[in-house]
Design a protein that fits this description.
This protein is mainly beta and 255 residues long. The chain contains one helix and 25 strands. Strands 5, 10, 11, 12, 13, 15, 18, 19, 20, 21, 22, 23 and 25 form a 13-stranded antiparallel beta sheet that branches. A hairpin with a 2-residue loop joins strand 22 and strand 23. It starts with a strand and ends with a strand.
């Protein structure tokens, strides 16, 4: 699936998670290209949970559920990141949550590309009975674009630190990060000086910031924290989906 505008060219890979596989701005690629590890490239949606579900298990409504282990002893990033998606409209795609999720449902994405921005909408639907759910996005941005090294500007009210079964909110720490932040001050601004500036905005109240890999930096708007299935998250009812949006604005920096 290809979308183009005056300054942008967007490619969406329907077979590998309905993810953004390429975004070229002013002639420069601003996403980490295809990688053998499914979690390490492009920008993929996370649903019906985000980040790690510890121990690949959770309880809901008095029953225990097991999820597939895909990282150490945990289950990461939901079920739709590697599943095939299908067209249901010109710029709208859908994906069943699949056999690894114990509740019937589906995810839907819609894309709006303009000359100077891209808006992405994500929905998580329950189709037969209530279910817990969280969602978000996991983009990988390169450290170097057009020979220019990334400068990241980011503010939040607090950083989450897990203490056993509870979450403690602490003063945000400087990088390196592999943390969830609360009270994110949007936009988060990524600049490759002299090449391109990209601003990330979302209605999500949380973001995971990850910069511990040489491939790039992740800025992940999320409706809830990692392990939310165990810590408590929204319950989605049939006919009333969980929704989120994320917008990327871009411009060529002024020298």
């Amino acid at each position: 699936m290809q979308l183009t505008s005056a300054h942008a060219s967007l490619a969406i890979d329907l077979e590998h998670g309905g993810r953004l596989e390429s975004l070229v701005l002013f002639g420069h690629e601003v996403l980490v290209p295809r990688h053998p590890v499914v979690f390490f490239w492009g920008s993929f949606p996370m649903a019906p949970w985000v980040g790690r579900t510890l121990g690949a298990r959770f309880e809901f409504d008095g029953a225990e559920y097991l999820l597939p282990v895909n990282t150490e002893t945990h289950s990461m990033h939901g079920t739709v990141y590697g599943r095939p998606w299908r067209h249901v409209g010109d710029t709208t795609i859908e994906c069943d949550l699949g056999p690894d999720w114990p509740f019937p449902g589906f995810a839907r994405q819609r894309f709006e590309l303009a000359d100077d921005h891209l808006t992405m909408h994500l929905e998580v639907h329950a189709t037969e009975r209530p279910m817990p759910a969280a969602c978000g996005w996991h983009p990988w941005f390169p450290r170097v674009v057009g020979g220019s090294h990334l400068d990241l500007r980011f503010e939040a009210a607090a950083m989450e630190v897990r203490r056993g079964d509870t979450i403690e909110l602490v003063e945000p720490a400087p990088p390196p990060w592999d943390q969830c932040f609360d009270g994110v001050v949007w936009p988060i601004v990524l600049t490759w000086p002299g090449v391109v500036e990209l601003s990330v905005t979302s209605d999500c109240t949380k973001a995971v910031m990850y910069d511990r890999h040489e491939l790039g930096v992740c800025v992940e708007p999320q409706t809830d924290r990692p392990d939310a299935l165990n810590l408590g998250t929204r319950v989605v009812q049939p006919g009333s989906p969980l929704t989120a949006w994320m917008r990327w604005d871009w411009r060529e920096p002024v020298d």
